[in-house]
Specification:
With 568 residues, this protein is mainly alpha-helical. The chain has 19 helices and four strands. β3 and β4 form a beta hairpin. The two termini are 31 Å apart.
Length: 568
């Protein structure tokens, strides 16, 4: 949370690395000295991501900004799925991977916890940095826990839609067994409360700032304990509803399969079991297609505007930066060395027939990739529509679902426009006249409304029939696999919540036993008080006057202490 900053001028006489003042209660915070020492080590500074093919997050800028006005620029933390804060640390720069790596080091090495899922906003990039870091530690002779290589890195639901469709499919928890259903994003929920402290804590001393944040964290943790049973009930109810909706979606797919008449549900299930985690993962980016893409990007860097494709289709998800240019140049040189210079030939000219052939590979790949992304988004749109029917009487949920539906439709329209722009480009049209593509190049009568209904007018089979049986069966198989994954995750959530309810009940029973023992001990002391002796060794006599104290001889009733009373 970058709202919890601290002004440097409030502690001029105490350098950050030497300020060891701590509040009386400092259980959550990692010492500043440990954080500064960790993030400055070379082995903890994972390399950045020069080619941003997913989004424009700047977390991978390892030399993130160092503020001249603030010595502490934010607060980092680790929360469990129920909202309990495990640890907190001050952040002294912009967001870096090193802070997340330190959280993992504390969890894995210091506490030796068998972590299974680590949710982070940019896990699509961080998981590669974590593997690099683990490999670096192994080369240094550090003994790693056995479960380090079994950690999964899903994207949190709050930030999932900020990633491109392919990244969402690859890193969504829907395809990760055991992930269940994430209950929102507890970290962002807690930051929305803590961020308001920053207006005052930035002017405090570092010790008082930490004490204020620490007290607030403990108050929120107490609230999480009290509201824990209600949270588990809500999580269980949502899992039941999600499983029911996923089951209904699979029944709808069964009806659509029966309506086709020339296929069976067994065939759809068989194809779904053979699909990769994402349809886009099955597409093969040949070296010819990659070479054509890199050559077009390299031409843009040199100021040569080619007539092959529009600029926004050549460079996707990134800007024409110097870092991207270095990456493109390096990869292009590697391909040319492997496929041209080592074979004793020269690279193709952009006007040669060979390059036209590689460009054809690239166009085929792009249309197939964007079609698979549209299949995924169309499935998501159908799921939103099915949920909308269930909550039509709830105004707040209806408003949220309408917003989500419009967002999905906008995303579908963007991909549809990209496909149309790609196919209608002058170079693609001229090439289609010479030799047909595997897709339909005549865009007359195409409408995005058909895409909303799951029909893609550019798909043709070998006989030239639009929306062939194979394409329909494949789309049904993709939808069935997604619904099956959602059904399985909901089932896992129900089992997980049941187990958590049992553990919570055991915890409350243990607390009741502790309270009962304390009350019995206090009752015993009241019934049999110890004689107090004075300075002369004689027992002090009770006061001569005053209200009489009546102590009941009945023992306390343990059954009257309920979990509600314990929580209160």
């Amino acid at each position: 949370c970058f709202k919890l900053r601290h002004m440097k001028q409030q502690n001029k006489s105490f350098p950050l690395a030497e300020d060891t003042a701590l509040p009386p209660n400092h259980q959550k915070f990692v010492p500043n000295q440990d954080v500064l020492h960790f993030i400055t080590k070379p082995e903890n500074q994972a390399p950045g991501d020069s080619l941003k093919d997913c989004s424009n997050f700047d977390v991978d800028k390892e030399l993130g900004f160092v503020s001249k006005k603030f010595d502490i620029t934010g607060l980092g933390g680790a929360f469990c799925r129920h909202g309990f804060c495990g640890l907190a640390m001050n952040i002294f720069t912009g967001e870096r991977y090193a802070y997340a790596l330190m959280i993992l080091q504390i969890i894995l090495f210091q506490h030796n916890l068998p972590l299974q899922f680590f949710w982070y906003d940019v896990n699509c990039r961080f998981k590669a940095r974590f593997k690099w870091w683990a490999l670096k530690l192994r080369e240094m002779g550090v003994s790693l826990p056995t479960h380090v290589h079994n950690i999964s890195f899903p994207l949190p639901p709050f930030h999932l839609n900020a990633h491109v469709a392919k990244c969402q499919e690859l890193n969504s928890c829907s395809g990760m067994k055991g992930a269940a259903r994430p209950p929102g994003e507890p970290t962002e929920q807690k930051w929305s409360i803590l961020r308001f402290l920053g207006m005052t804590t930035q002017y405090m001393t570092r010790c008082n700032r930490q004490a204020t944040i620490e007290r607030k964290l403990h108050c929120m943790q107490t609230y999480s304990v009290v509201s824990g049973p209600a949270l588990l009930m809500r999580m269980g109810a949502r899992a039941v509803e999600q499983r029911h909706l996923a089951g209904q979606s699979m029944q709808q797919i069964q009806k659509e399969v029966n309506a086709l008449g020339n296929t069976s549900m067994q065939e759809v299930t068989s194809i779904a079991s053979q699909l990769a985690w994402t349809p886009s993962a099955q597409l093969e980016l040949t070296w010819q297609a990659e070479y054509a893409s890199l050559r077009l990007q390299d031409a843009l860097f040199d100021g040569y505007i080619t007539g092959f494709l529009p600029v926004d289709l050549v460079v996707q998800g990134s800007k024409l930066t110097a870092t991207l240019k270095r990456t493109v140049t390096k990869r292009l040189a590697a391909i040319e060395k492997q496929h041209f210079y080592d074979a004793g030939t020269l690279p193709w000219s952009m006007e040669s027939e060979e390059f036209y052939g590689s460009f054809r590979f690239f166009v085929e790949y792009e249309v197939s990739r964007r079609t698979n992304e549209l299949v995924t988004k169309n499935t998501r749109l159908g799921l939103v529509n099915s949920i909308f029917e269930k909550v039509s009487d709830r105004q707040g949920d209806t408003k949220t679902l309408k917003s989500n539906k419009l967002a999905v439709k906008r995303s579908i329209r963007c991909d549809f426009d990209a496909v149309v722009t790609l196919i209608t480009s002058a170079r693609v049209q001229s090439m289609a006249e010479d030799e047909p593509f595997s897709f339909k190049a005549d865009v007359h009568g195409w409408d995005v409304e058909k895409v909303y209904e799951g029909q893609f007018p550019w798909i043709i089979d070998k006989e030239g029939n639009d929306n062939s049986k194979d394409a329909c069966v494949r789309r049904l198989a993709s939808r069935f696999r997604l619904c099956l994954q959602q059904f399985e995750r909901a089932q896992e959530e129900m089992e997980l919540v049941t187990n958590e309810k049992e553990l919570t009940l055991m915890l409350f029973e243990e607390q009741i036993r502790c309270l009962d023992n304390a009350i019995r001990k206090l009752d015993t002391e009241l019934l049999h008080p110890r004689p107090r002796t004075g300075g002369d060794g004689a027992a002090n006599s009770p006061p001569a006057s005053g209200p009489a104290v009546t102590v009941s001889s009945n023992p306390p009733v343990a059954a009257s202490i309920t979990p509600a009373a314990c929580a209160a």
